[in-house]
Design brief:
The complex is a heterodimer of chains A (about 400) and B (about 400).
Chain A: E1 10-14, H1 19-29, E2 33-38, H2 59-62, E3 66-69, H3 75-86, E4 90-93, H4 97-103, H5 107-113, E5 118-123, H6 138-141, H7 165-188, E6 193-197, H8 198-203, H9 207-216, E7 233-237, E8 244-248, H10 252-261, H11 276-281, H12 283-294, H13 299-308, E9 313-315, H14 319-324, H15 326-330, E10 334-341, E11 352-359, E12 364-365, H16 382-389, H17 394-402
Parallel strand pairs in A: 1-2, 1-4, 2-3, 4-5, 5-6
Antiparallel strand pairs in A: 7-8, 8-9, 10-11
Helix pairs in contact in A: 1-7
Chain B: E1 16-19, H1 26-34, E2 38-43, H2 67-72, E3 76-80, H3 86-96, E4 101-104, H4 110-113, H5 118-124, E5 129-134, H6 149-155, H7 179-197, E6 204-209, H8 210-215, H9 223-230, E7 247-252, E8 255-260, H10 264-278, H11 299-310, H12 315-324, E9 328-331, H13 335-340, H14 342-346, E10 350-355, E11 359-364, E12 368-369, H15 387-394, H16 399-407
Parallel strand pairs in B: 1-2, 1-4, 2-3, 4-5, 5-6
Antiparallel strand pairs in B: 7-8, 8-9, 10-11
Helix pairs in contact in B: 1-7
The chains are: A alpha/beta (about 400), B alpha/beta (about 400).
């Protein structure tokens, strides 16, 4: 059997949305047994996104986990959850502490059940401080971290991505902190309770600008697609609808190759483009001249022409390009996947199965390959977890299924 | 297992990490160093490129005054070493003998051309974990393609969905392209170390593609799936989502305010509040009720009603009053707001660093907060600050040998 990096670790995951499930998926891909606790009574809103095929994106967050349906708000549900805590190495959740406390699984309680458990408590705005009780969503908290106002052009609305990237920051920060804490536990016997926040994970990436402001009182310039040390530098329109190619000319050698690719037009020799400083000064006109030519070009061919001269360039990839990318497919970036089409008002076991594809966790390890694994529906691992892992009797399982604890 | 366990509040033992990376990997090295690893930057004798990147908070030419460098290199050591030089390669190989991790971000094949690829180095130290961070990874038809922050944002598709619907694709600021790969690299290194030291495994090689890592940073937008199911390309929608209505950044009386309605109950609360303020009963209409997808056909009218409402109040008022009504309004901050934010101030986010270039200023500490563990807080190193420590104390070079190496441009 292939070796797995985190073999033998058990992680208990409680919570919806993006960041927390992503953390669980990464740890599961590394070989940990991740038990995800959900209930059909309150389903994760993410299962209903995106509209084109509800649930189709969920494998990217939930793949390779053991998924059980368990309502921790019921007496039996709580008892079983506490049993799970007692055999887990890590407990991670994004519920607020007043809610965990109401359910009887706040951290002091968790630690009394399993003293050496590592806890990752993911918050939106933070666990202490004036906003600690505040409700938040990662997709909005990204605006709090400062990056929105470093994007786009001066005077225009914040140019934000049509997704919640700071959720991903948090989701990918958390595994390293969790593995670090497990390492520390293995060496010292000491455990750790850690709190992360989506707010902080965004704000920390503003580091250089935060230092700069304290020294010079300057806020970062919003320069759109421009650069302080490169010109031409931008996205240029190509043949076809909404088709673009990004090009970054890094030095004079590349500038000369670039002009040659464009067919050595007369303006290429003009004094106002003869060095970096003047090209940056006269960028608007330069970009216009370049665009007139690129509009007649196929974006992919343009990219190839630039790359042959070692000029950094790329098509602006659309879904179609990403889906069909030979490069990504050759690297095994996508794999087929089952999924379930979520339907409001119906429990997950009544959802219809479909077939799509999902991206892998983008880490290629030679000694302990990442597990792609199966995608299970909510509750599909009830029998394994309640029977095999916890050793509950069939009678107990039936009783708790009937009384709603396992719904 | 390494002989030394983690220090009191550190996550990691002082693992020796040799860090050859530029901007692609600088954040990865920072993570490991902040967590307690002994990260040694191996810099060319003139200093690595990051030392000369803006913003400058001190002397620009000396390579010691870059705010970029100072932030991303906290808790690391610095030695100078020219690995293009034969003697430099010999010294590097000697350093490999007691290294735990090597980080590199050179073009594919460059380390092999120096005889310093993983296959060569693992013969010297089978426990070595080596990580390459490159724009497109070590395999595949794009592996040798050149990239910058801009072109990676394009290649990953990030730009395709950033910007106004009628404008060109826009890059997200702050060199976003370098974070995802670095974060995945840090995670995989720790997993590999865990496997090696706690489970009794061996060293290994890890290939990280910045493009792949970036694509997984907007998985919920699912551009590839949208194409597969509908034959449609997800595109730019400005500051507002097309999936969840309403969601995005809206103008307020004094700037911008972010708002998102995820659950049916939140829509109830918001529509009642809007009605209270505007008196327009249209917002209470039955057709707008329901889950976050259900309002998609009415995006224009919903947005207009929301903007008419948000424009009447300050961002701060909406943020706090929203919470009282179980609604999520979030301020759109700039760096000045962050430095003054009471929440960050109260949650151990800052620590002070006294550096000759800047005097004492605040640095962000990290992402997690804990009573038991905390990141390290040492300033970034000056170029070659640890040459004596590494070359003389550890590797036992004599003064004379060091001088020769220096004269020959090796260190």
């Amino acid at each position: 059997m292939t070796d797995r990096a985190l073999k033998g670790l058990r992680i208990l995951e409680l919570g919806p949305y993006v960041a927390l499930p992503l953390t669980g998926r990464i740890l599961a891909s590394l070989g940990a047994e991740v038990i995800k606790v959900e209930t059909n009574k309150v389903l994760d809103e993410m299962a209903f996104i995106p509209a084109w095929s509800r649930g189709a994106g969920q494998p990217e967050f939930q793949r390779n986990k053991k998924r059980i349906s368990l309502d921790v708000r019921t007496p039996d549900g709580l008892t079983v959850f506490r049993k799970l805590l007692s055999i887990s190495d890590v407990f991670m959740t994004n519920f607020r502490r007043n809610i965990l406390d109401r359910w009887g699984i706040d951290f002091p309680e968790v630690r009394s059940i399993r003293p050496d458990i590592v806890v990752m408590w993911q918050t939106g705005l933070g666990g202490i401080g004036p906003y600690y009780t505040y409700k938040s969503y990662g997709i909005l908290v990204q605006h709090m971290g400062g990056v929105s106002l470093m994007s786009g052009e001066e005077g225009e609305p914040p140019a934000t991505i049509n997704t919640s990237y700071s959720d991903y920051h948090t989701g990918v920060f958390q595994p390293s902190a969790i593995i670090g804490a497990l390492m520390r536990r293995a060496y010292t016997g000491n455990s750790a309770i850690m709190e992360s926040s989506i707010f902080k994970s965004g704000a920390v990436t503003a580091g250089p600008a935060l230092l700069d402001y304290q020294v010079s009182q300057k806020t970062p310039s919003r320069i759109g697609n421009k650069d302080f040390c490169m010109a031409p530098h931008g996205v240029y329109p190509c043949k076809g609808e909404d088709r673009w190619c990004a090009i970054a000319v890094q030095n004079e050698t590349q500038w000369h190759s670039f002009i040659k690719i464009l067919g050595s037009p007369g303006w290429g020799n003009e004094a106002e483009f003869s060095n970096l400083d003047v090209r940056i000064q006269n960028q608007e006109r330069l970009d216009k001249l370049i665009s007139e030519w690129t509009k007649t070009q196929d974006a992919e061919e343009l990219m190839e022409m630039m790359q042959r001269e070692a000029i950094p360039s790329s098509i602006v990839s659309k879904g179609q390009d990403l889906h069909g990318s030979r490069h990504l497919n050759d690297r095994g970036f996508y794999q087929p996947s089952k999924y379930f089409t979520a339907e409001r008002g119906k429990p997950a076991y009544d959802w219809i199965e479909g077939q799509g594809m999902a991206s892998v966790v983008p880490v290629h390890m030679s000694g302990t390959p990442m597990v792609y694994g199966d995608y299970h529906n909510i509750g599909e691992d009830n029998e394994y977890v309640y029977g095999e892992v916890l050793g509950l009797s069939q009678d107990e399982i039936h009783r708790m299924t009937d009384n709603g604890a396992f719904y | 297992m390494p002989a030394t366990p983690p220090g009191d509040s550190n996550l990691l033992p002082p693992y020796r990490v040799l860090d050859l990376t530029g901007p692609e990997g600088v954040f990865c090295g920072k993570f490991l160093a902040d967590y307690g690893a002994d990260v040694v930057k191996i810099e060319p004798p003139g200093g690595e490129a990051g030392r000369f990147k803006p913003p400058f908070v001190g002397e620009q030419e000396s390579g010691e005054g870059s705010g970029y460098f100072l932030f991303y290199n906290t808790n690391k050591k610095s030695v100078t070493l020219n690995i293009n030089h034969d003697s430099g390669q010999q010294i590097f190989k000697q350093m490999i003998l007691n290294a735990d991790v090597v980080l590199e971000s050179f073009p594919v094949g460059y380390m092999a051309s120096l005889g310093l690829d993983y296959d060569s180095l693992k013969d010297l130290n089978p426990n070595l974990i080596m990580v390459s961070l490159t724009p497109f990874g070590q395999t595949g038809s794009w592996k040798d393609y050149k990239a910058t922050d801009l072109t990676l944002m394009a290649a990953s598709g990030f730009m395709q969905i950033t910007g106004e619907p009628d404008g060109p694709p826009v890059r997200q600021g702050n060199e976003q392209s370098h974070f995802p790969g670095a974060q995945y690299a840090a995670t995989s290194i720790l997993a590999a170390l865990y496997h090696r030291d706690i489970l009794g495994g061996q060293g290994q090689y890890i290939d990280i593609s910045l493009q792949e890592a970036l694509i997984t940073y907007y998985t919920d937008a699912h551009p590839a799936l949208a194409w597969q199911f509908l034959g449609e390309n997800v595109t730019r929608v400005g500051t507002n989502s097309t999936l969840v209505i309403p969601l995005g950044a809206y103008p307020s009386e004094d700037g911008w305010i972010a708002l998102g309605i995820i659950t049916p109950r939140e829509w109830e609360a918001l529509s009642n509040w809007i009605y209270e303020v505007t008196g327009d009963s249209e917002v209470l209409s039955e057709v707008y009720k329901g889950g976050n997808q259900d309002r998609a056909p009415y995006i224009d009218i919903i947005t207009a009603m929301v903007v008419d409402f948000t424009c009447r109040f300050s961002s701060d008022y909406l943020f706090h009053e929203g919470q009282k009504r179980n609604l999520v309004f979030i301020p759109v901050n700039n760096v000045e707001d962050l430095l003054e934010d009471p929440q960050l101030a109260a949650s151990n986010f800052w620590y002070s660093v006294d550096h000759p270039q800047t005097g004492s200023i605040k640095y962000p500490l990290g992402v997690f907060d804990s009573d038991e563990v905390t990141p390290q807080t040492n300033p970034a190193p000056e170029l070659g600050a640890h040459n004596l420590n590494i070359y003389m104390d550890e590797m036992k070079f004599t003064q004379e040998e060091l001088k020769t190496l220096k004269d020959n441009g090796v260190i």
